[in-house]
Design a protein that fits this description.
This protein is mainly alpha-helical. It contains 19 helices and 2 strands. It has one domain: Hydantoin permease (Orthogonal Bundle). Helix content is about 75%, strand content about 5%. Strands 1-2 form a two-stranded antiparallel ribbon. The protein binds phenylalanine.
């Protein structure tokens, strides 16, 4: 169940929509190289820490963090019980244990990051839904680059349409969350992920037949080291956090589903591997198309896959059917991620404020929906309103991926590495000593130092 839920959360628009766009923005192979290194050295170790906190705390993120910090701040006192003349041990809190409850702020930050992300995620998921209908009606048949760009431009220029799709997607997300039918959806992941893999592999095979295949591969896998800059590294680390759904508590919530027998290291590695494969496959498909049709990847922007994929679909036999199926699968991948984005907030409201699931979903849904309006308007009416060169969507995306998620992950690493008692972590992870110590070095030194350095250099 955990693997289904966590893979459902991880694999989503991030892999197929955002990853290729980020690769193109940062100049190709250098980004891919740093991305994969960040997944292995920073994101996966933190993913293990996050799932550990969830499984041990077994509550919403805020409460789990509080529980663990309390537990780790207690110590055993041994005293002689005079009457019975025997030694007894009791737990006592350090007098400054209140300080430790500040760690719940990490949970709070995560709840807010989840709502921020979902607000724009839903708008992009709306594009996907609109593309299901376009694909089904044969709109992509024999389309060229101009035609494809036009279809996308017409969609994002229309606030009413965007609002309609955004509303439908938020209603569906909230309905699923309110009903608590996640179980069913998680089982659907069993078919969804293999389905998505299959269609992506078919598309990747198609891409090998294109003239631009060689250029596409070179672009993705031959890093131009001169393109590595602090901001590229920050964007790759942020992308790794976003894609693996870490740093905001989703996996903490899902970690509480994980049975005590399962090995946290193994299941998280499985999820990370599946997630990274989907992202790389998406790149293998997109970039040959980009180079075949002489698109300039550096100016592509968030419309990249919506402008390129239809050309490929339009020129292959049975393209309409494959395209429809593709966007349906992408929509399902998006919805299994969106429920995990809102779940930290929902579980918090239910447990802490005794709200019903339905009430919590409606309230959070409305808030997120409202915030999403800012994003959908930043593609049309308010596209010119900019702060630091970014429009509303750019700010929200940058704030969450480049600041909130890495910061959340950094704090989770410090919390698990330095605050939680080592014995509790060891008992919960049950790794061999070599693996455990390797993980500990990554979580105590490598991840915090790398993230801090890159924060200092990348944000300035
Ligand atoms: N990982 C999801 C994706 O790649 C997005 C997400 C981010 C979901 C953070 C939950 C938490 O699409």
């Amino acid at each position: 169940m955990f693997i289904f839920a966590a893979t459902g959360s991880a694999v989503g628009l991030g892999n197929i929509w955002k990853f290729p766009w980020m690769v193109s923005e940062s100049g190709g192979g250098a980004f891919v190289l740093i991305y994969i290194s960040s997944v292995i050295l920073i994101a996966l170790p933190i993913m293990i820490a996050e799932v550990f906190i969830g499984r041990h705390g077994k509550q919403n993120p805020v409460a789990s963090l509080q529980y663990l910090s309390k537990e780790s701040s207690s110590f055993d006192v041994t005293e002689i019980d005079g009457d019975l003349n025997r030694i007894k041990t009791k737990k006592q809190q350090y007098s400054n244990s209140d300080d430790y409850s500040n760690w719940q702020l990490v949970g709070w930050g995560g709840i807010i990051a989840g709502i921020f992300i979902l607000s724009f995620y839903s708008v992009i998921a709306g594009w996907t839904m609109s593309y299901i209908l376009k694909a089904g009606s044969g709109a992509f048949n024999l389309i060229d680059l101009e035609g494809s760009k036009m279809i996308f431009a017409n969609l994002v220029a229309d606030p009413i349409k965007l609002m309609g799709w955004h509303t439908v997607f938020m209603i569906l997300t909230c309905y699923i969350v309110a009903k608590g039918v996640k179980g069913g959806l998680e089982k659907a992941v069993k078919f969804l992920i293999p389905g998505l893999f299959l269609i992506l592999i078919a598309l990747a095979l198609y891409s090998t037949t294109l003239n631009g295949f060689g250029d596409g591969m070179r672009y993705m896998f031959v890093p131009e080291l001169s393109k590595i800059s602090p901001s590229v590294v920050l964007s790759a680390i942020g992308m790794a956090f976003f894609s693996l759904s870490i740093g905001m508590g989703s996996l903490m919530v899902y970690g509480s589903y994980l049975s005590n027998e399962s090995s946290i290291g193994e299941v998280t590695a499985t999820v990370a591997f599946a997630d990274t494969s989907v992202a790389i496959l998406a790149g293998l498909i997109i970039f040959p198309i980009v180079f075949t049709y002489n698109l300039d990847p550096s100016t592509a922007g968030p419309g990249l896959i919506f402008e390129t994929l239809p050309i490929a679909f339009g020129s292959m036999p049975g393209g309409s059917i494959i395209a429809t199926l593709f966007f349906i699968l992408l929509f399902f991948a998006a919805i299994t991620s969106s429920i995990s984005l809102i779940e930290p907030a929902i579980s918090f409201l239910i447990e802490r404020h005794s709200m019903s699931r339905a009430e919590a979903s409606i309230k959070m849904g409305l808030l997120t929906w409202f915030l999403g309006i800012g994003t959908l308007l930043s593609f049309n009416l308010i596209s010119d309103y900019k702060l630091l060169g970014m429009n509303f969507f750019g700010i929200l995306d940058g704030l969450t991926s480049k600041i909130m998620l890495p910061l959340g992950g950094l704090l989770m690493a410090i919390f698990t590495g330095y605050i939680v008692k080592k014995k509790i972590v060891m008992d919960e992870l049950r790794m061999g000593p070599i693996k455990f110590n390797f993980w500990l070095i990554l979580i105590k030194y490598v991840a915090p130092i790398a993230v801090t350095l890159i924060f200092v250099r990348g944000l300035l």
